[in-house]
Every structure is written in C-alpha cells, then in structure tokens.
Automatic annotation (TrEMBL):
Cited Gene3D superfamilies: P-loop containing nucleotide triphosphate hydrolases (3.40.50.300)
Species the sequence originates in: Pseudoalteromonas porphyrae
MF terms in GO: protein tyrosine kinase activity
UniProt protein name: Capsular biosynthesis protein
Stretches assigned to coiled coil: none
Superkingdom to which the source organism belongs: Bacteria
Domain called AAA: residue spans: 24-141
Any one cellular-component term (Gene Ontology): plasma membrane
Family matches, as InterPro entries: AAA_dom (IPR025669), Bact_polysacc_biosynth/exp (IPR050445), P-loop_NTPase (IPR027417)
Pfam entry (one): AAA_31
C-alpha cells in the first residue's frame, strides 16, 4: 500500500469535503478492488492525525485485509460490535489506530445496521473520526458487510475510481447500489496512478490506425517519441 504524503493538496481537498459535511464516520470503498481505496483511507487518517484529531480505521474488507507494510499484529481475543470488546481490540499499527475484522465473532450480527451503528456510536466517544475501509462495491462475498448495514452510521461515502481500470458502466452500477442501500452523501475520488501517460496512449491510438495512413502515423509517432514530457506519469 502506497501512502499519499500528508502535505498533498489532494488530501486537503478530501479533508475539506469531510469537514463541509461535518462527517465523523466516513466510508472508503472502491468499485472492484485495487483502485487505491485503502491507501486513501490510511493517508486521510494520517492527515487528520497530523491536524491533532484522534482517528480510528475499522477494516471491514474480508477480501483484502487492511495492511501497511509489515504484517498485522496477531490478535488472540474475539470481539464484536455489540459490546465493549470492539474497543478492547483496537491495535496501534504503523502509527494508526486500527480495528480489524481479524477474530471478529458474530459475523452475521455485524450485518445488522442497528448493531453496527450502536458500536460506532460508542467508538465516537473516544475518536473524532471513524474511517471504514470497506470491501469493493461490486464484489459479492458471503463475508462482506452489506452496503445497507452502513446506512445509519456512515455520514459520507468516498468511492474511489481508477482511470484506465474502471469504466462508466461499473461506476453507474456502484452508485446505483449505494443509493439503493440508502447512502445519501456519495463523492467520487478519481485516481490517475494506473492511467498510462499521454504519449503512450497517443502512440497506441496511432498504431491502431496505421494500416490506413502508414506514412502519416509513422511521422507522428516519431514526433511524439521526441517529446519526453508526454511520457512522464501523472
């Protein structure tokens, strides 16, 4: 997981969005996985910590457990959201307070939105912000926390989209599912880290048309290859 430096303007804009909604419980979610949702979650946590806020990340992603660098510390005690055991199983991990699904008991009860909401309310007494790192919106798994379970506790949902990975159809489908699950405040975070540089995409487009205009496309490709600035990643 690559963290975004706390001084980056992109993080400031996300934090401003959180503040404008007065959101204390924020859900981070990708469309299908690997779009950078967990990285954004951890980066926002560190940014808020740097501003003096007390932040807790709750890992609710059974497909790809939350991890920064080294492996998670092993936990021996079972916990659930229906009692104080969730507060007793918070660990300090890479300078971030983390409550992970590891050793979560009563998996079915966490799918009850009232139980989850009551548990989040207790944690809010100790933390300024609760960040929920969720499983991908478009992936189905029996261990997933369903989207509707978060409708009571989540003040803001940040859906990460990766250019060059996701398409408009999958984005519309995910937003529709979130709205159907009663998520009211949804914001789209667009990431370019997997988007090919402009030069690469221009050459690919020209090569696809090379059979029609071989001399012209060869001339343009040579011109583009000499413009090194077109090949720097965003």
């Amino acid at each position: 997981m690559k963290l975004i430096p706390v001084q980056y303007q992109e993080l400031e804009e996300v934090c401003n969005e959180i503040n404008s909604h007065q959101a204390r419980c924020i859900t981070f979610m990708s469309l299908s996985g690997e779009e950078g949702s967990s990285s954004l979650c951890a980066s926002i946590a560190r940014r808020l910590n740097a501003q003096g806020a007390k932040v807790l990340i709750i890992d609710l992603n059974p497909l790809h457990p939350f991890q920064i660098g080294n492996s998670l510390p092993s936990l021996s005690n079972e916990w659930c959201f229906s009692d104080i055991s969730c507060q007793l199983n918070i660990v300090k991990y890479q300078h971030v307070d983390l409550l992970t699904m590891q050793n979560l008991s009563e998996t079915e009860s966490v799918k009850n939105k009232q139980i989850l909401n009551d548990g989040i309310d207790r944690l809010k007494q100790e933390y300024d912000y609760i960040l929920l790192d969720m499983s991908p919106a478009l992936k189905r798994n029996r261990g997933n926390v369903p989207l509707h379970a978060l409708s009571l506790c989540s003040d803001l949902t940040l859906l990460t989209v990766a250019l060059g990975v996701n398409d408009e159809e999958s984005l519309c489908s995910a937003v529709k599912n979130l709205k159907h699950a009663a998520h009211k405040h949804i914001r789209i975070i667009i990431g370019q880290h997997k988007f090919a540089p402009l030069g690469v995409r221009m050459i690919a487009s020209l090569k696809a048309r090379q059979h029609k205009w071989p001399r012209l496309t060869r001339f343009l490709i040579n011109k583009i290859n000499r413009q090194q600035w077109l090949f720097h990643p965003y």
